[in-house]
Amino acid sequence: MYRLAAFDMDGTLLMRDHKMGGTTLNALHQLVENGVILTFATGRHYIDMKGILSHSGINGYLITGNGTRVYDVEGEPLQSMDLPAELVEFAMRTPWETHASIHIFRDNGWFTDRNDSALLTAHKTSGFQFQLTALDTLPLTGNHKICFIAPHQELVALKTQLEQQMGSEADFCFSAIECLEVLPRGCNKGAALARLSHHLDLTLADCMAFGDAMNDKEMLSQVGRGLVMGNALPQLKQELPHLQVIGRCEQQGVAHYLQHWLSSPHLTYSPEF
């Protein structure tokens, strides 16, 4: 019996309207009734997540910013990791060969100097918004992560540049096909979930996890049972071929899996695609 369940949000629980379906919410409530602790592990900001969960009527532990922050169910911080100040300064002042927009995440919000209203669509439920700011006026300390947003192929080239210049001091991941993130070294959802498990007197073997993108890789590969969404990025499926692929997010594949697991945990699972 797994004691802790960790869920990615976008592409796993949140559908195209950026909300959780009713069947999914029912399944999450059933988990809680069966004594399973819920954890939501996401690249989203804490403020954004609290709005989403409040709207959905569900609660749990939070791993936000792709592992840069961990919060208990009351919203009290359990862990925090920031980018080194000198790395932030270098990243912000180096003329990278890219037209990508740059986004900085801090405890008090999301900051960018590019006014792109299309980016707000994913945050309609919570009302979370960016703050237009001259980025060179932000403090160099207290920054969770830096995000570059652009077409994927441009970001692939940028990732190579960043790794050549900062590879020993930071980690890099695609949290979405058009979003490349710079994170503190050793920071990812898997490492954050390991710390949370320890806080709860559990081990990663006591956890199941669900995800669809490369920022879920460490988490999915380290838990007792990692489940890959049917709509997951092909690279994730290729790198974790031993993990079971379940249904798609739009068909509430997580709920379908959980209903089977709760009612018939010892029977072979056949996903609906």
UniProtKB/TrEMBL annotation:
| Catalytic function, reaction form | 4-amino-2-methyl-5-(diphosphooxymethyl)pyrimidine + H2O = 4-amino-2-methyl-5-(phosphooxymethyl)pyrimidine + phosphate + H(+)
User: Which EC number(s) does UniProt give?
Assistant: 3.6.1.-
Tell me which UniProt keywords the record has, alphabetically. Hydrolase, Magnesium, Metal-binding
Source domain of life: Bacteria
Provenance organism: Yersinia pekkanenii
Question: Which PANTHER family does this chain map to?
Answer: HMP-PP PHOSPHATASE (PTHR47267:SF2), PTHR47267
This entry's Gene Ontology molecular function terms read: hydrolase activity, acting on acid anhydrides, in phosphorus-containing anhydrides; magnesium ion binding; phosphatase activity
> What residues make up the catalytic site?
D8 (nucleophile)
Name the InterPro entries on file.
Answer: Cof (IPR000150), HAD-like_sf (IPR036412), HAD-SF_hydro_IIB (IPR006379), HAD_sf (IPR023214), HMP-PP_phosphatase (IPR023938)
Tell me its cofactors: Mg(2+)
Q: Which gene encodes it?
A: cof_1
State the family it belongs to. Belongs to the HAD-like hydrolase superfamily. Cof family.
Q: What is this protein called?
A: HMP-PP phosphatase
- Name any one Pfam family assigned in the record: Hydrolase_3
Which residues are noted in the entry as Mg(2+)-binding? D8, D10, D212
Functionally, this protein is described as follows: Catalyzes the hydrolysis of 4-amino-2-methyl-5-hydroxymethylpyrimidine pyrophosphate (HMP-PP) to 4-amino-2-methyl-5-hydroxymethylpyrimidine phosphate (HMP-P).
